[in-house]
Amino acid sequence: MAAVRNHTWIPSESPQPQRQEHRDANLPRAYHLRFDPSALPKYTQPDDLESWLSEMQLEVNTFGETVVCPAIYRHCFKSGDPVKSWYTMLGPDKAEDLTKGPSCWFRFASAMREVWSKSIAATQREAEDRSKLHSESFIQYYFEKLKLLQAAFPESAHSTHISRIRARFNDAQADRFIREQTDLIVFSDQCRQYDDHLKLHPVSQRINQFTYPSGGTARYRQQLQPAITTRAATAPPSSTLATPVPLVLTRDSSSAAPPSRVKDTSRQSRPDVRLTTVADRLNPATGKN
After folding, report:
1. What is the Cα–Cα distance from 89 to 105, expressed in whole angstroms?
2. How many Cβ atoms sit within 10 Å of the Cβ of residue 118?
3. 15-74 confidence digits (pLDDT tens)
4. Cα separation, 54 vs 209, whole angstroms
5. CA-to-CA distance for 194 and 188, rounded, in angstroms?
6. DSSP bridge pairs for 43
7. Does the pTM exceed 0.90?
8. CA–CA separation, 212 and 112 (whole Å)
């Protein structure tokens, strides 16, 4: 204590205790990234297989194929779905080959494509028919449509993709605002700008425009039927209604016809003076008619 008071105490050079790492060096690095198998994307028939494989590829790149592949059966396939039934029928040897060892993800993806890939005609038709939904923005529609087009038409030019995306805008104002024809990056930027434009200047709706309720005209008639039945029940019976009196138009003989309708007969009774004079005129040369 005297050395401490005199400031002459020198601490010993014993090694300081190091913080111990509670991590098993033999475990793959994926376990230390807190892999959550329940967060894996789900796949059911007839979902788009290529979209699911693209999302799974991101999981494989992050956590490793030897970690992701064994969890696919339990967390990606739903019970009762044909895909899960197909996987259970592979047998233990085939299932182990798809989930363990190097390149297991490549074998798993190849097996999925071999069985569950759509025909090229169906894929192309689905990609072309994909229209913009009312609930999604233009930039969302752009990426969803482009993902389908690139899978269905991998060799198409960017201008072709843009024309197919633009064809399903279903919005003439957006087609005038988004004018890019060849560059996908510029086209996507214009889609995002148009979304911002709609937030600042929303499209005005017609106030008095009548719209049928959800379900179409058939549901609208069903909603009107109770009101029609109520009015029919409260209306008086037909026997109590007054008999309509027919309207008969008669013409009074004492009344004179309108001046515009009086027939002028003076010209008919007047003799044709011109014809008589011509007929009675004598020929001065012969003295005869």
Report:
1. 19
2. 16
3. 554 544 444 445 555 445 689 999 999 999 888 898 899 999 999 999 999 999 999 999
4. 44
5. 10
6. 77
7. no
8. 44
